[in-house]
């Protein structure tokens, strides 16, 4: 009865003693050396094949013998011969090494599948004005990775990440959405712009924060990082003149003369240079924000997502 109980206990723990398995089983490198000795009949040739010195190979064999408590190799001027125990251990070692090779091949297949695609979700300004350059740089590093990009506001980016529909995200808001970790990858300023014919383009003094807050503006939709920054900085906004779902649409409306807008400086450089838009000086408030890469909490980016994150952080101001 006691024998049965003992065997059941050993089966439950997976070993016949309380010692951790790793302390009683030689590592893969040592087992590969033993297999090479068996195949080549020489410790020196086995060491050469594995790229180690003969003294290092001898030390590794002695360490295995001490660990297992049996002699494995007989050494003589004519070469190295496995003992009877060594031949038996070699058979076991071959199965362990083959299993490890199968494990490694399976893990590599998982990495290849992960590395074959990258799903990115980004808020509009980053998607339109920063990501194209980063993705071109990533393409040179990982030409076989297929990249898909979904653009939306910061709230939508967070939702895609938390649903498992994106591997890496980029947002522009003041705060990091719940459930996500982040890293600052750039900084950006918002500026007030109007068409050249607007009255603000001819004013002789800076625009006050209170006047801006009280003026109906062409705005992004609620949930966008740009609107969140502006609303927080001004302590509230007037009812929108027009509400649009993309930076490009807001900019086109401002250029048409529909009204003033507040946009990222990244988005309006060309229009300001060509005088299709005019920047309006603002006093009493600073509209500066951090641009962030985001990912689900506790799941640091790996593979192509990690490489893209490295490319973006190289340009942190």
UniProtKB/TrEMBL annotation:
The keyword Lipid metabolism does not apply. Belongs to the LysR transcriptional regulatory family. Residues 26-83 form the HTH lysR-type domain. Keywords: DNA-binding, Transcription, Transcription regulation. The keyword Transcription applies. It comes from the Bacteria. Residues 1-21 are annotated as: Disordered. InterPro entries: LysR_HTH_N, LysR_subst-bd, WH-like_DNA-bd_sf, WH_DNA-bd_sf. Residues 1-19 have a biased composition (Low complexity). SUPFAM superfamilies: Periplasmic binding protein-like II, Winged helix' DNA-binding domain. This is LysR family transcriptional regulator.
């Amino acid at each position: 009865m006691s024998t049965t109980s003992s065997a059941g206990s050993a089966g439950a723990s997976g070993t016949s003693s309380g010692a951790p398995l790793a302390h009683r089983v030689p590592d893969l490198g040592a087992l590969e050396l033993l297999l090479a000795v068996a195949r080549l009949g020489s410790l020196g040739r086995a060491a050469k094949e594995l790229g180690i010195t003969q003294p290092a190979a001898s030390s590794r064999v002695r360490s295995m013998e001490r660990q297992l408590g049996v002699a494995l190799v007989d050494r003589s001027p004519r070469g190295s011969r496995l003992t009877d125990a060594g031949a038996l251990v070699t058979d076991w070692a071959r199965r362990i090494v083959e299993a490890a090779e199968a494990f490694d091949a399976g893990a590599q297949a998982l990495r290849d599948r992960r590395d074959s695609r990258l799903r990115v979700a980004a808020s509009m300004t980053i998607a339109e004005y920063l990501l194209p350059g980063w993705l071109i740089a990533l393409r040179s590093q990982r030409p076989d990775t297929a990249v898909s990009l979904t653009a939306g506001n910061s709230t939508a980016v967070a939702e895609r990440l938390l649903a498992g529909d994106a591997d890496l995200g980029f947002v522009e808001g003041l705060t990091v959405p719940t459930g996500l970790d982040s890293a600052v990858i750039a900084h950006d300023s918002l500026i007030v712009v109007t068409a050249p014919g607007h009255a603000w383009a001819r004013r002789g003094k800076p625009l006050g924060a209170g006047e801006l807050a009280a003026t109906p503006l062409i705005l992004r939709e609620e949930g966008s990082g740009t609107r969140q920054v502006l609303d927080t900085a001004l302590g509230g906004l007037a009812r929108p003149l027009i509400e649009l779902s993309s930076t490009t649409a807001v900019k086109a409306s401002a250029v048409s003369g529909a009204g003033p807008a507040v946009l990222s400086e990244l988005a309006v450089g060309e229009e300001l240079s060509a005088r299709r838009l005019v920047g309006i000086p603002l006093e009493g408030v600073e509209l500066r924000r951090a641009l962030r890469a985001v990912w689900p909490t506790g799941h640091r980016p790996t593979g192509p997502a990690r490489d893209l994150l490295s490319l973006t952080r190289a340009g942190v101001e």
